[in-house]
Design brief:
Elements lengths: L2 H5 L6 E3 L2 H6 L13 E4 L3 H16 L6 E4 L14 E4 L7 E4 L3 E4 L5 H12 L15 H6 L7 H4 L6 E7 L5 E4 L4 H8 L4 H15 L1 H7 L16 E2 L4 E2 L2 H4 L8 E8 L6 E9 L5 H9 L5 E6 H9 L1 H5 L4 H9 L2 H8 L6 E9 L2 H14 L5 E6 L2 H21 L4 E2 L3 E5 L5 H13 L4 E7 L4 E8 L4 H20 L11 H4 L3 H5 L1 H14 L15 H7 L5
Parallel strand pairs: 2-4, 3-4
Antiparallel strand pairs: 1-2, 5-6, 6-11, 7-8, 7-11, 9-10, 12-14, 12-15, 13-14, 13-18, 16-19, 17-19, 18-19
Helix pairs in contact: 8-22, 12-17, 14-17, 18-19
Length: 549
Amino acid sequence: MSLRDEIVPLMHGDVSDAPEDLEHFSRDTSIFKRRPSLVVSPKDAADLSSLVRFVHEARSHGKDISVTGRSAGTDMTGGPLTDSIVVSFTKYMNRMIEIGSDYAVAEPGLYYRDFEKATREKIGMILPSYPASRELCAIGGIVSNNSGGELTLQFGKTERYVRELEVILSDGSKAVLRPLNRAELAAKESEKSLEGSIYREMHALIESNKAVIEAAKPKVSKNSSGYALWSVYDPVADTFDLSKVIVGSQGTLALVTKAKLGLMRRKEHRAMLVVFLKNLSVLPEVVHRILKHDPESFESYDNHTFTLAVRFIPQLIKHLGFLKATLLGLSFIPEVLMVLTGGVPRLVLMAEFSEDSPGAARDRAREARHSITGLPVQTRFAFGNIDREKYWRIRHEGFNILRKTLPGLYAAPFIDDCVVDPDTYPKFLPELEALMTSHPFTFAIQGHVGNGNFHIFPLVDMTREAVHKEIIALNKQVYALVLRYGGSITGEHNDGIIRTPYVKQMFGPEMYALFEKTKRIFDPLDIFNPGKKVGGTIADIERFMMRSS
């Protein structure tokens, strides 16, 4: 009997081993390809529970199968790739369950664009930790990667907004994870169940390793690597919250079936200061001065992204209506002239300021502009919605433009998410640039310049074996540099196949051992997404790297 034949009677949802489905789910947006053996689309949490119970039983009898969750598949790390069972949430488990006064409850397969449309229309609020892939990604990935984006500079990452998670544990049982007071924690620890055991063991682990955990906590403004053990106990509220280790765990500890997410209301009016840099040497000072004016977001993209955006304006605006597309297209005239006259900037910075009135927002942008007077940069203001949208569209669509418009080359995310303190820019950036130019790649750089989070995409020919060796070498060198400056190997995109081999290097052997123990406490049979967060090797990177661009 095939694996599919064994699972079909247990499910109300879909179970497929069709070649076209297996091929589709063998890719995300990473440099990897890994073909699953089965694709399961559960109808609901009960369906998922049945599947996990089956896998738990099979695994306990020595069968080598596992379960890997997947929402929209926009992950850049290989996180949702497996050669076993992939669970796809977007087909059925895509409902908005509830919208409250300042929160929403949603299933993991709900696309963020639909989530935000619903919350905006009903209560005028949003989840501000959405990533640049907001039109493509889904809630499950946002939670499981602890995503962040353009508003993280001011409003923080997803971890700040998760109030409660409903999950399926590794024995198929359901649990609701939320902040517990001491009495509630004691009650949970008294339960004779896997959930009770998890609470007892995690409480003991965190209590007995406080100093190690605190010392290993990343010192930069954002991090998605490892398990956030430092966030479980809140000394101010005196609460214990295991949802904190599920956020950012890439489905390795439990599978999320429902997320209660806090929302916030943005100020209504925005104004943007755009800064064009010909030389990266001035970047640290520009960032330092503008940050003093507290921008809501502070983003960047480089000359390669800029030039391609100007060349491929029709693709950039194709989803808009005729009038809006025409206006947006015309707004690119200054940038087209800049390219034609050879004045392409090395880096474009976008600092956006929000206020309760248009005048106040514009005043703040002007003050920021005044603060960089005398520095060798060009600037312009983007006050109108169309003008601002032009720059946001380049920033949001930059990775997709790079992926789809360069024949034979692939914008490869393998050093795509490093974070350093912006105060280290004067020393860090020259060393980073020297490292990159020592390899035979062209690089595209985007990211969140305001909090030191760079998305670097080498443009590579993945069909060449020599390129694979260069990828491994550059990977090691960049992460070593980032860690030397006290940074994180991933601010938003998480570990996955590409960074799990470096988690031990980032946190040290003592903290890494606590991550391994956390995995065993939640998932003793290694059912959930094995080889991610802990246990992954550089050999995995080499093995699963795709051989086509």
